[in-house]
Amino acid sequence: MKNIQEMILSECDDFDLKEIDLMMKLLQKKKHQLEKELCLRRNQLMQDFLTNAKSKIHREQKLLAERLEIIEKDLNDLHEQMRAEKNRIIYEPMQKIEIEPEKFEKNTKKPDSSLSSLFNHNLTKSKTDLTKNLLGFDTFGTERQQQQGGKSYAQHNPFELNELFEMQRKKLNLYYDCFEKHYFDQCKREQFNDESLKNVHGKSGRFDRFKKDLNQFVLYSQLRPLASLNYAKDSSNIVSSIEFDKDMEFFAIAGVAKKIKIFDYAGVVKDSLGLSYPINDIDCSSKISCLCWNSYYKAMLATSDYEGNVIIWDAFIGQKLNVFQEHQKRCWSVDFNKIDINLVASGSDDTTVKLWSTNMNMSVITLNSSANICSVKFNPKQMHSLAFASADHCVYYYDLRNTKKPLILFNEHRKAVSYVEFLNENELVSASTDSQIKLWNTNQSTSILTYRGHVNEKNFVGLTSNNDFIACGSENNSLYIYYKSIDKQMLTYSFDKWVCI
Questions:
Q1: Cys staple from 293: which of 43, 95, 245, 340, with CB 3.0 to 4.6 Å?
Q2: Which domains does the chain have, with CATH numbers?
Q3: Whether the model pTM is above 0.85
Q4: pLDDT, mean of each 10-residue run, the chain (501 residues)
Q5: How many helices and strands in the chain, by DSSP H and E?
């Protein structure tokens, strides 16, 4: 540009008017050409943006249309169910009543309201069943709740039911975004013919499954303590493990105080004086890290300890039945096989998982790993399947008929995995010191869901499950409850200082 200016200035004295006009026309033409190209480029950019925006809106419109179609179909199915329930209530046949002639003659003199009472009873019962069905109250039985002095849902008056229903609506609104995501995730899985969504008839059970999830999640509004038990006089003697027996009748607690205490659950809950004592108190030679009940022999209990021992006990008489001493370092976890009732697994800081038979004195299988083993669990429905959690941030899932390599490796955690727990035959959860719990399916290596909310960066805070509910501790001195299908905590309980029994 500078050279052109210098050339024009040096030669301008020789230009006549005609040459200057020609030069100006050429420059003007070039200017218009450049302006046209610039305008074209600007319009092209605008066109690209609008085209992309249009395509995006079309995709969203298509997605919204598909989702709207699914919602309309589910609404129609729901309305059909509600009409069927309503008709069942109105037209439900009354029970056939046999009346003896002699009694009939007596009753003709004095009107008897038993028939109308029976009809009213049937109608009330049907309405109650419908209410329980619609609100999800039939998900869990109320027998235990009544035993503990609480009200069953059938015992609530209509005002209380309406108030309860409004509370459930508020909870649903609070978690609406979570359920919306869960709803459409299930729709997507249904499109790919996900076997886990099928019902017993082989058809898609997505609708019923989501309704169950919705009602179970809003069913509970708070946690309340039933009792507090004193494991040891010194509060620094932490409890490492709490487990119920196969019938949920007795539970055992154990920890660093070198004691195992067995309690009767019903007695502890019903005791109004706050003076519950263990039915058995077993002294141990080492600190206990984990315990597990046998699923068949009611009195059989397995423990792992800080010395690397795995011990099988008769819990009710406090006698050792087997002592296994092959681990070289602290043993963190022990678990009974639910199907082969004589098979026991243990995991240790010596980076091995060992399998034991209660009929033998030596281990029957040893699985070697590259890091400390924090937790071991058998699949509750598959005898040959075992999962263990490791300090190398991974969960290993083995078929014990082929121990050369794991069947599948779950490796999405960022820190050591402290617990692994099966929810059912195909799903398990793992807890890590990255403050996350992850849900896995044994048929894929990627996690299904990640639960966040609790704090776990250093300690073993505990992990347990009951069907679709997951419970864990937290380093903020709280208990967190998650529901399997929702990644946010369902309930939280913060522990205050209260007197131990």
A1: 245
A2: 236-330 (2.120.10.30), 369-500 (2.130.10.10)
A3: no
A4: 65 71 83 88 89 92 91 90 80 51 44 36 38 35 41 60 86 91 88 62 72 90 86 78 95 94 92 78 94 95 96 94 95 96 96 95 94 96 96 96 94 96 96 97 94 93 93 94 94 73 42
A5: 9, 24
